[in-house]
């Protein structure tokens, strides 16, 4: 099956009449399996809106989102909820773990909510992917911020989604912890892509991450730049310096 995520002429306008704000203006992008993409752009350029629409958390005003062959625009709310649950992973800046549950129980939660009895081996595999196998029985308050975000990532991976969307995933972490986490994210994609064909893996082959930090973006395979709701450029194999230089241009142009 083609697991590519496609955005086709995506547009989004909030409100109407005099209060209308257009956040996306015809964005077309592809995120194929094996890709780790960072989305960057000045404040208000539409990054979060793009992620929300691509992840089926918000409806676009025009265009289509296709996730692994499914066109989200034809789904009713129930079908969209199920697709989000089964095929899409999401991590936010805040970790959103349930404080009373252990790491393993937090990871198992999406399966329980789907009415699936979690296989302990799968939970361990998801925690192993993020280097937290030995913290399975710890509660969030007994884990560092970086470890809590790793649990959140393991929880997003446990349903084996087609894509993981991450909105500023290192925004609440210090520099060293951020770098470790980004290395882990990059490693997940690179390892899953190398892993052999049909073998089920807890890893993830496609990550789309919004960030405002060039150092963070440089961990991705590719950076897509947005300005005023449009794609205005891309950079493959980015370095932090090259990303920062592009951002300076965009920010000057946005003023
Ligand atoms: N719920 C909403 N209602 C009205 N306008 C909105 C809403 N959400 C976003 N916007 C507007 O849409 C535009 C794009 O916002 P968005 O949050 O996607 O940008 P962003 O690039 O993620 O910004 P930042 O880097 O500051 O988080 C902005 O002008 C914003 O004010």
TrEMBL record:
Domain of life: Bacteria
Keyword Transport in record: yes
Annotated Gene Ontology cellular component terms: membrane protein complex; plasma membrane
PROSITE patterns, per the entry: ABC_TRANSPORTER_1, ABC_TRANSPORTER_2
PANTHER family for the chain: ABC TRANSPORTER RELATED, IMPORT ATP-BINDING PROTEIN
Keyword ATP-binding listed: yes
Native source species: Phytohabitans flavus
Protein name: ABC transporter ATP-binding protein
Residue span(s) of domain ABC transporter: 5-253
Coiled-coil residue spans: none
CDD domains: ABC_MJ0796_LolCDE_FtsE
InterPro entries registered for this protein in UniProt: AAA+_ATPase (IPR003593), ABC_transporter-like_ATP-bd (IPR003439), ABC_transporter-like_CS (IPR017871), ABC_transpr_LolD-like (IPR015854), MacB-like_ATP-bd (IPR017911), P-loop_NTPase (IPR027417)
Keyword annotations: ATP-binding, Nucleotide-binding, Transport
Entry GO MF terms: ATP binding; ATP hydrolysis activity; transmembrane transporter activity
């Amino acid at each position: 099956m083609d697991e590519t995520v496609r955005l086709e002429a995506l547009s989004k306008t909030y409100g109407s009449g005099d209060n209308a704000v257009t956040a996306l203006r015809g964005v077309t992008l592809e995120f194929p399996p094996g890709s780790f993409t960072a989305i960057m752009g000045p404040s208000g350029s539409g990054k979060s809106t793009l992620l929300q629409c691509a992840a089926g958390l918000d409806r676009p005003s025009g265009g289509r989102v296709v996730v692994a062959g499914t066109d989200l625009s034809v789904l009713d709310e129930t079908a969209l909820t199920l697709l989000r649950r089964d095929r899409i992973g999401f991590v936010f800046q805040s970790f959103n773990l349930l404080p009373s549950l252990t790491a393993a129980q937090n990871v198992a939660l999406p399966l329980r909510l789907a009415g699936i009895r979690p296989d302990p081996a799968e939970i361990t595999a998801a925690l192993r992917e993020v280097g937290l196998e030995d913290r399975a029985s710890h509660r969030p308050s007994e884990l560092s911020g970086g470890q809590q975000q790793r649990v959140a990532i393991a929880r997003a991976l446990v349903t084996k989604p087609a894509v993981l969307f991450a909105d500023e995933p290192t925004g609440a972490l210090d520099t060293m912890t951020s770098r470790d986490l980004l290395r882990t994210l990059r490693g997940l994609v690179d390892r899953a892509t190398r892993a052999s064909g049909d073998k089920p893996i807890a890893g993830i082959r496609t990550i789309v991450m919004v960030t405002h930090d060039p150092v963070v973006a440089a961990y991705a395979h590719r950076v897509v730049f947005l300005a005023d709701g449009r794609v205005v450029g891309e950079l493959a194999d980015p370095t932090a310096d090259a990303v920062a230089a592009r951002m300076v241009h965009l920010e000057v142009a946005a003023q």
